[in-house]
Design brief:
alpha+beta, about 25% strand, five-stranded antiparallel sheet, about 800 residues, seven-stranded mixed sheet
């Protein structure tokens, strides 16, 4: 939202600089995103009056003008390309030597043979408007020769970010009230008084019974004899300062009051309301609305419609009015709408129609129900002042009492000081809360209608702390050492896991929890959204892999094909009991070259399933082992089930090549999906540390012939089953098969291992190593049908 500093100063006596105001608001919880200066205070740019105009003799699209620049040196000749002026108009003139926005320097010269001693300017060229189709025509009473800065004085605009719980900040008066409470400056809210109106209402308003939840309170005021036209300069300047485009005096007043008080309003052309009344109702099946933005929207039966007495839709409640009943230059009687619409209904309507407006932005967060009538009176008074006419008695429909019923919140001063940590005088507390609009009673503090976020005692304490300033609360070291909890240990493990994967060359990805329908197709436990935000976000994810694949595809399209990605996140299922945490998964994805090309190698070795297996084993402490058992899983080739101690941890394998080609990934893709909680339990526990070995190791190689179906895991388990204390490690270093059966029988494979023997207390003798080696071979031969190749 944009705030004009000059506009704010109309309501509060604040004399500080824009940067000081920015710091003040930021520390109070209002984030100031930017500070900009509007206006046209340029040296050597003055107001000039066009005296004569003739066609350029050498250019069809140019004119030669003589202008009075007010300097008393006679007429000045200017070549101009605009067509929207007439003799006698007053326009901005940039004299030679002037520098316009964009470092555009004005010089005297000839254009197509005619002297041009300056340039007549548009609003775009001065940076005070977007229209560059013609000259900026100034009011007739503007003084000739006046610096342009007098006509468009510099104005500071603050762009602020509003939190959803503070809709009262969506207005200049609301922010001015905050500044008054923070600084003690006097607050001068606009005077709102009922105007003298005819007793006759002149308009009928009804709210259908099924529409009262969405619109509990509605007001309408008829004004006759208004003259629609351009707004006065002060009103146009105020709206343009906050980024709103002036339209006409009636519409501009509604926008002005919205920015002033935070209450949206809408004006209807009474002549276009059939039946002479307004009916608030729900949309009919198949109904459409042609809105003021020129587009037609299909409505749903739960959308709230502002219609006329004949049943025609005139606007979408709280979002936007209809084009068919808009105010135009021919309008002479208007109906001014000012209402309270239920925030959730407006929010849902805006999302479903994809239509957002300044009005819906405020209604979605909740407007001040107690200020609806006051805002209507304020707008009526301004319309009568600017557009003339007469007003009828305001018509109200519905009840507002329940919306503005006072809420009493108790406040204990001792508890306030205990929570804040510093002494605060009771008188100061009372002054702060009073400045924020609260009133004190014997039962506690009465909360105003514009602060419905204040519900508990701690809310009042927070308000006092905000105004006092957190910088006034001294820091104290009150923390104590506490034993590590399961939550702490789990957090530490996951951070260590992330660091370990990063050290192994992986990058962490954080993908969306909302996924398209294709990612959960065929998943019975998929949790679909009842009201999806878009076609790409229709369900909660049931697997992390699709999100990582999309990340890989985007990287590949950008030229990064060697990838190692992981994600540690939760997946969702309908069967998860209420109150139980969702499943936490660890998913890894690898594709491309195992090493980067360099002068020592071309990096042609591609990642494979063994690399993925090695990564998983590196994540575990020494002494904890994983088992990889062949299995079948949809979408994976070479699929294996990852186990530990006979219990499944997850799955791994190579992505189906067809899916790889769909994603434009050239190299094979390998992925693993693990139960992160089970993996944490396996990796946690006491770590074992040992001193570096002092005595040398001895290696023995062993070659054996086994059936092709016998896995390495079975051979390694058989050798370890010997429980030989001198065997410290075993490593397979060769595997050979011969389909023709010439060197190795068909259906067999030759596997070679390197076995390492070591003792902690002495150097082993050759006989001791041979005896240990024989015991290992015997255990292997007893467990598996092998033939040793001596």
């Amino acid at each position: 939202m944009k705030l004009s500093l000059e506009w704010l100063r109309a309501y509060v006596d604040y004399a500080g600089s824009p940067s000081e105001l920015s710091d003040l608001l930021t520390f109070a919880g209002i984030e100031v995103e930017a500070i900009a200066t509007r206006g046209a205070d340029f040296p050597k740019v003055v107001v000039a009056q066009i005296l004569t105009s003739r066609q350029h003799p050498n250019a069809d699209r140019l004119s030669v003008c003589e202008v009075d620049d007010g300097l008393g040196q006679g007429p000045r000749q200017i070549v101009c390309g605009a067509k929207n002026y007439k003799v006698g108009d007053k326009v901005p003139l940039a004299l030679p030597g002037a520098v316009l926005p964009g470092d555009f320097k004005i010089k005297e010269g000839k254009l197509r043979g005619e002297l041009s001693a300056g340039m007549l300017c548009s609003g775009k060229e001065l940076g005070i408007g977007e229209d560059q189709s013609g000259l900026l025509i100034l009011p007739a009473d503007t003084r000739v020769g006046a610096p342009i800065g007098e006509v468009f004085p510099p104005e500071t605009v603050l762009e602020i970010e509003i939190t959803p719980n503070r809709p009262d900040w969506l207005s200049h008066v609301g922010v001015a009230r905050e500044i008054s409470a923070l600084t003690g400056a006097a607050l001068r809210p606009p005077v709102v008084a009922e105007v003298h109106a005819q007793e006759e209402a002149g308009i009928r308003v009804t709210i259908d019974e099924d529409a009262r939840i969405g619109c509990p309170f509605y007001t309408a005021t008829r004004l006759d004899g208004v003259k629609v036209g351009p707004s006065p300069d002060w009103l146009r300047a105020r709206l343009e300062a906050v980024g709103l485009r002036p339209i006409n005096n009636i519409v501009d007043v509604t926008n002005y009051v919205m920015m002033e008080l935070g209450q949206p309003l809408h004006a209807f052309d009474l002549a276009k309301l059939e039946g002479g009344g307004i009916r608030v109702r729900l949309a009919e099946p198949g109904e459409t609305l042609h809105a003021l933005d020129g587009r037609t929207y299909a409505l749903k039966p739960h959308h709230l419609v502002i219609g006329d007495a004949a049943g025609h839709g005139s606007g979408l409640a709280g979002v936007m009015g209809g084009e068919g009943t808009g105010v135009t230059e021919t309008t002479s009687s208007v109906v001014l709408e000012c209402a309270y619409f239920q925030p959730a209904l407006v929010r849902r309507t805006a999302r479903e129609t994809g239509l957002s407006s300044d009005a819906s932005y405020r209604y979605e967060r909740g407007v001040n129900a107690g200020g609806v009538s006051a805002a209507a009176h304020r707008a009526v008074a301004l319309i009568l002042e600017i557009a003339g006419g007469t007003a009828h008695r305001m018509v109200t429909c519905g009840e507002v009492d329940a919306l503005v019923a006072p809420r009493i919140v108790p406040l204990c001063h001792e508890r306030l000081e205990a929570l804040v940590g510093i002494p605060i005088e009771p008188a100061r507390v009372q002054a702060i809360l009073a400045a924020l609009g609260l009133t004190q009673s014997p039962e506690g503090w009465s909360v105003p209608s514009w602060r419905r976020d204040l519900e508990r005692e701690v809310d009042l304490i927070e308000e006092v702390t905000r105004v006092v300033g957190l910088e006034a609360v001294p820091g104290r070291a009150l923390g104590r050492m506490a034993p590590s909890s399961p939550v702490d240990r789990s957090y530490d493990f996951r951070m260590e896991l992330r660091r370990s994967l990063a050290a192994l060359g992986f990058h962490e990805a954080i993908t969306l929890s909302l996924v398209p329908a294709r990612d959960v197709a065929g998943v019975e436990e998929a949790a679909a959204l009842k009201n999806p935000l878009s076609e790409d976000q229709v369900a909660l994810r049931s697997d992390l892999l699709p999100g990582l694949l999309q990340c890989a595809a985007r990287n590949a399209r950008s030229g990064r094909s060697d990838l190692r990605l992981f994600e540690l996140g939760r997946i969702f299922a309908k069967s998860t009991p209420l109150g139980e945490p969702e499943a936490l998964r660890l998913t890894l994805l690898m594709t491309g070259a195992a090493t980067a090309p360099s002068w020592r190698g071309d990096g042609t070795h591609q990642l494979d399933l063994h690399d993925l297996r090695g990564i998983l084993e590196r994540l575990l402490p020494v002494g904890r082992e994983l088992e990889f058992v062949r299995t079948k899983r949809t979408g994976l080739l070479l699929a294996v089930e990852v186990r530990a101690g006979g219990k499944p941890l997850g799955n791994a394998g190579q992505l189906d090549p067809a899916r790889t080609r769909e994603l434009d990934l050239r190299a094979p893709v390998f992925a693993a999906d693990l139960d992160a909680v089970a993996f944490e339990a396996l990796a946690s526990g006491d770590r074992r540390f040992a001193a570096l070995p002092r005595f040398p190791a001895v290696t023995r190689d062993i070659a054996l012939l086994v059936d092709l179906a016998v896995p390495h895991a079975g051979l390694a388990a058989a050798m370890r089953a010997a429980q030989e204390p001198l065997l410290s490690s075993l490593l397979p270093f060769d595997i050979f098969t011969d389909p023709k059966g010439e060197r190795v029988p068909a259906g067999k494979k030759s596997v070679a291992y390197s076995l390492t023997y070591r003792a902690e207390e002495k150097t082993l003798t050759n006989d001791e190593v041979n005896a240990a080696h024989a015991r290992v071979k015997k255990a292997l031969g007893d467990a598996v049908a092998v033939q040793f190749r001596e």
